[in-house]
């Protein structure tokens, strides 16, 4: 691929998904475009670049999806789910006792392990949330991963990563070599297509936003814009969860990291001691 073609494809990816791809990562293009080229009977990257330059929108969407990293697993990194159970959920159950409503958004939810992990925790706490209306919404740019998420069928390898065996046998049915999540959990999550670069219109507000392991692929300006727009969807006592390699520090002034609760952030207009007290109150 010529440097000009590389620049063209890199700019297209940045514009369509936020993904920043530098020349050192050109090997990623090579490895991920192979299957796309084969599917379309194209000779390789050069032929894909020519089609993209000619304005092939369908191919552009496919190339963009193929370049996303979709890795996810149940209860990934454990602490974001411990904080949900021990810090955020108790605080919000108290604060929303009158409305008995909670809304949770898993942005960039990929194949669904993150929203389903939250749904499983809520099912395990059924007595606490009885008569509550709790919505969990999972979104992603990629329709391929969303259809897998909606289907709720996972390989043996996928259910072995992070999911305790007790929860596997309780909430999944074995189907041949695979495991299907039970409808009682599947029905707790709704999925929608969403590109984080687009305005978050029609989303309403959320009490908790999980936006994990996606900002790492974006440049500073994109991260800043997404974080600012997410802060506008959260009330003052809402929470934003980021991935283990992600932080708001030095990126956005819209959030504070909550002390002693790694990965948990609250809105910066909440006085810092309040965030601290929230964490301490539940022993996080
Ligand atoms: C590594 S996965 C993270 C999955 C999950 N949040 C987790 O932490 O396990 C990243 C996901 O971000 C999605 N993604 C990438 N760019 C996106 C964008 N601009 N808007 C929405 N989703 C995007 C990808 O399709 C992919 O499924």
Bound molecules: S-adenosylmethionine
Rounded mean pLDDT is 93
Low-confidence stretches: none
Computed over alpha carbons, the radius of gyration is 20 Å
Strand ordering within the main sheet: 6-2-1-7-8-10-9
Quick one: overall form? Answer: globular
Structural class: alpha/beta
Please indicate the percent range of residues in DSSP E strands (runs of 2 or more).
15-25%
State the separation between the terminal residues, measured CA to CA: 51 Å
Instruction: Figure out the total of helices.
Output: 12
Largest sheet at a glance? Answer: 7 strands, mixed
Helical amount: 40-55%
SSE order, as H and E? HHHHHEHEHEHHEEHEEHEEEH
How many strand segments? 10
Task: Lay out the secondary structure.
Layout: H1 3-17, H2 26-39, H3 45-53, H4 57-66, H5 79-95, E1 101-107, H6 113-124, E2 133-140, H7 143-151, E3 153-155, H8 156-160, H9 165-171, E4 172-175, E5 178-181, H10 183-186, E6 189-193, E7 208-211, H11 220-231, E8 239-242, E9 255-257, E10 264-267, H12 272-281
Parallel strand pairs: 1-2, 1-7, 2-6, 7-8
Antiparallel strand pairs: 3-5, 4-5, 8-10, 9-10
Helix pairs in contact: 1-3, 1-4
Bound molecules: S-adenosylmethionine.
The site of S-adenosylmethionine has 24 residues, from loops.
Can you give a write-up of this model?
- There is one protein chain.
- By secondary structure, the chain is α/β, with parallel strands linked by helices.
- Helix content is 44%, strand content 16%.
- The protein has twelve helices and ten strands.
- The strands form two sheets. Strands 6-2-1-7-8-10-9 form a seven-stranded mixed β-sheet. A three-stranded antiparallel β-sheet has the order 3-5-4.
- The mean pLDDT is 93.
- Bound molecules: S-adenosylmethionine.
- S-adenosylmethionine is lined by residues 17-18, 68-72, 76, 108-110, 114, 140-142, 145, 194-197, 212-214, 243.
């Amino acid at each position: 691929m010529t440097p000009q073609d590389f620049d063209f494809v890199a700019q297209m990816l940045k514009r369509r998904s936020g993904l920043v791809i530098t020349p050192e990562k050109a090997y990623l293009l090579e490895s991920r475009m192979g299957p796309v080229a084969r599917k379309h009977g194209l000779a390789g990257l050069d032929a894909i670049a020519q089609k993209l330059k000619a304005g092939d929108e369908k191919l552009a969407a496919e190339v963009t999806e193929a370049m996303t990293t979709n890795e996810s697993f149940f209860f990934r990194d454990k602490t974001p789910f411990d904080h949900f159970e021990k810090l955020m959920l108790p605080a919000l159950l108290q604060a929303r006792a009158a409305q008995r409503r909670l809304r949770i958004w898993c942005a960039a939810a990929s194949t669904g392990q993150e929203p389903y992990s939250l749904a499983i925790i809520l099912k395990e706490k059924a007595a606490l949330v009885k008569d509550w209306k709790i919505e969990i919404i999972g979104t992603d740019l990629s329709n391929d991963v969303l259809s897998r998420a909606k289907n709720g069928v996972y390989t043996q390898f996928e259910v072995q990563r992070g999911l305790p065996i007790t929860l596997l046998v309780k909430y999944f049915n074995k189907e041949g070599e695979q495991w299907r999540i039970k409808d009682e959990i599947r029905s707790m999550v709704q999925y929608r297509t969403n590109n984080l670069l687009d305005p978050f219109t029609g989303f309403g507000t959320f009490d908790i936003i999980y936006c994990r392991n996606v900002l790492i692929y974006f440049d500073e300006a994109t991260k800043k814009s997404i974080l600012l727009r997410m802060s506008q969807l959260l009330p003052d006592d809402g929470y934003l969860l980021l991935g283990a390699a992600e932080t708001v520090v030095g990126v956005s002034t819209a959030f504070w990291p909550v002390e002693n609760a790694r990965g948990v952030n609250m809105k910066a207009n909440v006085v810092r001691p309040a965030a601290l007290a929230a964490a301490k109150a539940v022993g996080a």
